[in-house]
Amino acid sequence: MLHRFIGSKAFYKSVLTLLIPIVIQQFISSFVSLLDNIMVGSLGREAISAASIANSILMVHMLAIFGGLSGASIYGAQFFGKGDMDGMRNTFRIKVYFAVFCSLAAILVYLVFGETFLASFLRGESNGGDLALTLRLGTGYLRIMLWGLIPFSLVQVYTGTLREAGETRAPMVAGIIAILTNLFLNWVLIYGHLGAQALGVEGAAIATVISRYVELCVVVFHSHRHTERYLFLMNAYRSFRVPGKLIGRIARTGLPLLINEILWSLAMTFVSQLYSSRGLNAVAALNINSTTWNLFCVIMFAMGSAVSIMVGQRLGAGKMQEARDVDRKLIFLTEVLHILIGLAMVLCSPLIPRLYNVEPEVQDLTRRLLVIAGLSLPVHSFAHVTYFTIRSGGRTVITFFFDGVYAWAVTVVLAFCLTRFTNLDIIQIYFCVQFADILKVIIGLLMLRSDFWARNVVNE
Hey, which of 20-29, 224-233, 317-326, 417-426 has the most confident mean pLDDT? Predict the structure, then answer.
């Protein structure tokens, strides 16, 4: 029985070949985000809260890009598995259209409503902090970050397309260069080293924007320099015409994913806003917790990519049984790893808050939040790879209900009721919300057992 969940040496070698560059890139990115957070946190509670709130709002755009590109990525992975380079080229063009349009729309919305969004997070207790200063810092940070939305989106187009073709090393190198650029510029611009003016929170935003342009330049240069390796990019910009039938198919598949990611990101932003009602200490602690969570989740995120690529390519090649077998083994591997990673997060919980120059109350709150996050990690990792499994076969309407609708019907409703109608503190509320996904795990298990998700979308 156990052999159904454990792969051969060749299987794990192929998984590691795919995963290692993604994990390295995401780990360095998350680690630098942690250092970035520590640098901003050294400026005080208001600074770290301002950056945290602004990034929560920007997350809506980031996940909208992810959702909109995901529908096209399903086709990209399956076109590559089929060997159809024209199909991949047209899919790439559709991604570029979407990325630019979505980013321009987001810039407009944030310019008009950004300050209002930020202010909605600052209606709780100040806990001795300066809410007006937090709003001012957050507004300045947000407006600078808008300059980086288009390069961020185009990077996702290129790196996602390369990964669909099994190329993970080039995106890793581009990401590492961007990350190191960001870290160096943070040191220069936040604190005013090398003769630069100390810009504080705004310096962190400028560093991030510049690093995104650097990453875009690196990945574009590499991709178009090696078109003999990436045939789907050959003459990609000679024409922007794409078959209307393909646009319609991708739209039908991708629209539920786009709506899902927008709904899910709005749900998480709303939950963060509800948490903020417990005071500025809670906002700061949750920000540190979130950044640390991302660091410990790099393998979980990479496993989602592995499912999309390895399972999607087999579905595109018509190897349904092999796709099911690979998926089952990837999910089992994910859970074993995240039981261990969750325990590591719990063990590190007393140490991480000490890295921040924040009040003792914030440090203690962060430690307790990290324990809960670590214990709940296996629950979230299972839900994550289940989502990517269902998505790999184009069952995007189901993923919409499984992810976005669930977030609003369960997570948001629970957080709203607990914050508005009880006197529970942020620790108790966070515990209930984190473990609410146990129901999602049960639903996911039932769907995986049915095997309905295994579908070839490019030949339909």
Answer: 417-426
C-beta separation of 331 from 413 below 8 A: no
- Specify if 459 maps to a domain: no
- Number of folded domains in the chain? 1
DSSP sequence for 346-367: HHHTTTGGGGS-S-HHHHHHHH
Q: Is residue 377 part of a domain?
A: yes
Residue 271 and residue 276: Cα distance in Å, rounded? 9
Task: Please say whether the beta carbons of 178 and 241 come within 8 A.
Answer: no
pLDDT at 186 over 80: yes
DSSP result, 161-207: HHHHTT--HHHHHHHHHHHHHHHHHHHHHHHT-TT----THHHHHHH
CA dihedral in degrees (189, 192, 197, 199; nearest 10)?
Answer: 50
Average pLDDT, the chain: 83
Which CA distances in Å does 177 have to 65, 144, 172, 217, 223?
22, 21, 9, 11, 16
Report the alpha-carbon distance of residue 160 to residue 23 in Å, rounded: 15
Per the structure, the complete domain to which residue 255 belongs is given by: 2-450
Asked if the structure places residue 307 within a domain, the reply is yes
The answer to whether the CB of 201 falls within 8 A of the CB of 137 is yes
129 pLDDT above the threshold of 80: no
Position 102 in a domain: yes
